[in-house]
């Protein structure tokens, strides 16, 4: 978490009375913890669990037998968790309450920003920590069922504006059209298949750039909203848009016309080929009408379940695609798009130098105003101190849900369009490249400083060490006894000086290991611990020939001597 540039006080004085130099730009934020892979099936880890080991592949989406509660456990709202499993989501613990010892990523409390950079202290303010309260709004539909005798789907006629490609129509299917004596299971099986065919036709129409085919799946009352969504997705060069029915259809016969509720899993990618890209998954609820015109969606909810809504679901975006990034801004910022793309592309080239594990296929960079910050991905980081975040996403790869990709969001109202934004993007892409598709991401007491420190290092390492932005904060924090023997994670009792000082200590710690022992050794150590879940104390001798305590002694001595 970082302060906005205007929060830095250039009149602040050093102990010798001289003015402190203003930083080159604001300090950058990071990303929120990823949901860790389940240890025994798709059950979310609980606070206080031991560190996760190697991941077990996520289970395939089961055949639905009930309303949205039939979603896999890691998608289900809290009331529908299995008995004995308390619902846990990223940041679900009370603010600042850290369980003892190493814990899995998804159990981490909402430290000020989690993987989000700490703010630089404002010398004119009282030192108080901003506590992020994460509220997950989870909704589930309640439904019931029947249908008139045999019909086949047809496309509704509607004015759709310009059409770029040929609309794809739903297929005939294999389940027989139900007759007048059909049972409810037969009717619902038919409706499920017909809904899936409509969704597949819509997906193909989107990829074929047919607005007509895309809108054919919706009631005309949704056409304006869904035209905007279509335009956002096509500008971002959507390359995969695979639908799967997760639960339903379940009939609601309470009105004059039967309606059917269906929960949908969507896997999507931008730019990269559909058969090789790292997909992101969302789950959302829909309501359909069945009639002579076929199955048509009349309501579409935005994704939630802890990872939504995604920006293209709720905001009119304009986007540009470069060699390494997809960069999107709200339509109101269209004049700044070219500049945002250039900065993102340069940051991506810088981040790619750290692709020691798996090179991201495509960085996705979203630029947000304060309004979008309060909405995108649940608005978890709408504190004015947070300048941006990088969000780990799961996706369906070869039929399995697994850690896959990252979305990065920058708050330009907080950074401005200059050096501040550049620094934020460099830091966030540093998180994306080092944690991309991490099999068992570990963000714990003994690894958090590496996670944040390496993102700082990726942003700042092309500058002289003495020009590091947080140097003065680290010096002041050391004077208070900080980083004497260890680099502790931020907690709710930290003021902004302590928070910034701890992040700065993380930077110096990574700098020391890279410069003293080489980047290859650090990449191995980071990979074994942060990416694969090993406890640093268990592998430090293997990598460095020294205990973790000895390494930390060296690091803290270096910090004390340097600042």
Question: What does this protein structure show overall?
Answer:
By secondary structure, this protein is an alpha+beta fold. It has 14 helices and 9 strands. The strands form 2 sheets. The chain has a 5-stranded mixed sheet, with helices on both faces. A 4-stranded antiparallel sheet has the order 1-2-3-4. Helix 11 (496-517) packs across helix 14 (548-562).
The strands making up the biggest β-sheet line up spatially as: 5-6-7-9-8
The percent range for helix content is 25-40%
- Uncertain residue ranges: 1-114, 117-162
Radius of gyration: 25 Å
Provide the succession of SSEs: HHHEEEEHEEHEHEEHHHHHHHH
What structural category characterises the helix and strand content? alpha+beta
Strand content: 15-25%
Q: Give the N-to-C terminal Cα separation.
A: 22 Å
Number of strands: 9
Shape: elongated
The major pleated sheet works out as: 5 strands, mixed
> Would you tell me the overall average pLDDT?
75
Count, helices: 14
List keywords for this structure.
563 residues; alpha+beta; elongated; disordered N terminus
């Amino acid at each position: 978490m970082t302060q906005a540039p205007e929060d830095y006080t250039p009149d602040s004085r050093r102990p010798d009375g001289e003015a402190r130099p203003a930083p080159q730009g604001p300090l950058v934020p990071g990303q929120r913890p990823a949901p860790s892979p389940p240890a025994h099936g798709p059950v979310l880890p609980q606070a206080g669990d031991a560190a996760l080991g190697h991941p077990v592949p996520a289970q395939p989406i089961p055949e639905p037998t009930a309303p949205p509660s039939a979603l896999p456990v890691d998608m289900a709202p809290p009331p529908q968790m299995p008995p004995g499993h308390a619902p846990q989501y990223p940041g679900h613990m009370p603010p600042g309450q850290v369980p003892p010892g190493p814990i899995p990523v998804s159990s981490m409390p909402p430290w000020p920003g989690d993987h989000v950079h700490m703010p630089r202290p404002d010398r004119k303010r009282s030192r108080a920590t901003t506590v992020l309260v994460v509220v997950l709004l989870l909704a589930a539909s309640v439904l019931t069922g029947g249908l008139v005798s045999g019909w086949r789907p047809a496309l509704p006629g509607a004015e759709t504006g310009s059409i770029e490609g040929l609309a794809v129509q739903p297929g005939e299917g294999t389940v027989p059209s139900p007759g007048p004596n059909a049972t409810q299971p037969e009717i619902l099986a038919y409706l499920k298949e017909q809904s899936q065919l409509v969704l597949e036709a819509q997906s193909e129409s989107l990829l074929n750039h047919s607005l007509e085919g895309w809108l054919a799946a919706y009631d005309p009352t949704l056409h304006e909203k869904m035209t905007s969504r279509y335009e956002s997705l096509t500008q971002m060069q959507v390359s995969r848009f695979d639908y799967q029915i997760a639960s339903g259809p379940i009939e609601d016969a309470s009105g004059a016309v039967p309606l059917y509720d269906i929960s949908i899993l969507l896997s999507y990618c931008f730019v990269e080929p559909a058969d090789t890209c790292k997909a992101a998954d969302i789950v959302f609820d829909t309501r359909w009408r069945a009639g002579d015109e076929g199955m048509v969606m009349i309501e579409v909810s935005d994704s939630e379940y802890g990872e939504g809504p995604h920006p293209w679901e709720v905001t009119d975006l304009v986007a540009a695609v470069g060699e390494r990034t997809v960069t999107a801004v709200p339509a109101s910022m269209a004049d700044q798009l070219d500049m945002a793309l250039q900065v993102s592309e340069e940051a991506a080239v810088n981040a790619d130098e750290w692709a020691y594990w798996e090179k991201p296929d495509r960085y996705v960079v979203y630029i947000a105003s304060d309004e979008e910050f309060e909405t995108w991905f649940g608005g978890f980081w709408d504190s004015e101190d947070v300048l941006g975040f990088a969000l780990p996403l799961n996706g369906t790869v070869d039929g399995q849900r697994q850690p896959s990709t990252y979305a990065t969001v920058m708050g330009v109202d907080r950074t401005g369009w200059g050096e501040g934004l550049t620094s934020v993007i460099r830091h966030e892409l540093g998180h994306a490249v080092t944690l991309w598709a991490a099999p068992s991401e570990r963000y714990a007491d003994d690894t958090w400083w590496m996670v944040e420190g390496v993102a700082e290092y990726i942003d700042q390492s092309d500058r002289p060490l003495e020009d590091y932005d947080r140097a003065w904060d680290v010096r002041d924090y050391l004077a208070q006894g900080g980083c004497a023997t260890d680099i502790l994670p931020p907690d709710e009792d930290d003021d902004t000086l302590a928070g910034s000082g701890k992040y700065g200590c993380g930077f110096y710690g990574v700098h020391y290991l890279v410069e003293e022992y080489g980047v290859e050794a650090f990449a191995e150590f980071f990979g074994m611990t942060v990416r694969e879940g090993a406890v640093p104390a268990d592998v430090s001798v293997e990598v460095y020939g020294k205990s973790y305590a000895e390494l930390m002694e060296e690091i803290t001595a270096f910090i004390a001597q340097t600042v």
